[in-house]
Amino acid sequence: MKKNVMAWCLIVVCSTAIYSQKAKRYALKSGYVKLELTGSTVGTKELWWDDFGEKTCEIEKSVTTTKLFGMKTTEEKHAKTIVVKDNYWTVNYIENTGCKGTVPGYNIGQEISESMTEEEREAFANGVLESMGGQKLGSESLNGYSCDVFTIMGCKSWLYKGVAIKSEVKVMGIVNNEMFTDLKPGISVPASTFTAPTDVNYQDLSAAQNNFFAQMGNMPAMEDMDDDDDDLQIPVEYPFDKFKSVVNGFSYGGYKSWGVNSVFGVHASTLTKGFSSLTIVAESRKNAEEGEYSGMEKFTHNGHNCYYGEMEEEEGTALIIDYPAYDMYIIIAALPTMDKSTLVSISDKLQF
Do 319 and 306 form a contact (C-beta atoms < 8 A)? Predict the structure, then answer.
């Protein structure tokens, strides 16, 4: 059951992380950069952008050589990727194939980022960077351009106004470097640059992406998968219309709702304020594993058995309220943590 709550939180947090550094991806409205690729991958990469990164076009021509266990393989690449807000197109010129789709969580991440102050965006971005073991090393001048230097997961990057103009990657003995040979900040980029080629048959991946995210909360862990039907999700008995009515009538301290959904019998809604989130879930008690809440504080409130405690693997807390009349648990999860009394006061406003 906890996997469903974490999936909803994960989608919101990941979407916010993508856009948390700035409401605008780059600090430069438009421009062009050409990078020379050296190391295991040799070639060039070109990037055009406009509207502060809302529109991008990248073309890469390269050859990657890999040596593993005495065997040598080479892979040639000639590809174009265009991203316009929440839509993308990729073209493989070697095979004359392509695909298109939508960027998952774009609208949620963009709107949440725009609702943050500059200080909140910076704090969230720093938190994401630190959680992944990264750090900002400081500033450095690169051929006259003042860059912020970051390191994360074996990669060191030099960013000029948000644009990566140099990078060094060394992972498991494989070295790849990128260094700019041409940079034209502020130039006017023709609108046609961000128009996908029409002579390519694109495979639409949108439906597959949406299905993947819809099922995230219902996928069992690999170690739990077997050939039995024991792990099938049992729908909650509480009517979705009632759940939607209760949640839509709820407000709390400036938090913004991102809609109400029901997927495979689990009702859920997420509200955010800056980089804080509240997730409200209604799920059948039959989906709870035996002893799942044994490590949480148990108490009684308004005639309901309740459980309060920390969420596994996340810096958040959750309140679980038992509604036996509907064979249902209401779960209220907060990221970052909220204390017991705060979550109880929130539950009092939700009249299920």
Answer: yes
- What per-residue confidence (pLDDT) applies to 131? 55
Whole-prediction pTM: 0.59
3-state DSSP assignment of residue 76: strand
13 near 277, Cβ under 8 Å? yes
Look up the domain containing 159 and give its range: 14-209
240 and 181, same structural domain?
no
Structural domain includes residue 214: no
Average pLDDT over residues 82-111: 84
Rounded to the nearest angstrom, the gap between the alpha carbon of residue 48 and the centroid of all alpha carbons in its chain is 24
Closest CA to 235 of 295, 182, 285: 285
Inside any domain, residue 79: yes
For β-strands 135-142 and 145-152, DSSP reports them as: antiparallel
Q: Are residues 37 and 94 in the same domain?
A: yes
Identify whether residues 248 and 307 lie together within a single domain: yes
Q: Do 155 and 297 share a domain, yes or no?
A: no
Q: How confident is the model at residue 32 (pLDDT cuts 50, 70, 90)?
A: very high
Report whether 51 contacts 194 (CB < 8 A): no
Smallest CA-to-CA distance from 116 within 209, 238, 15, 33 is with: 15
The strand pair at 55-68 and 71-84 is best described as antiparallel
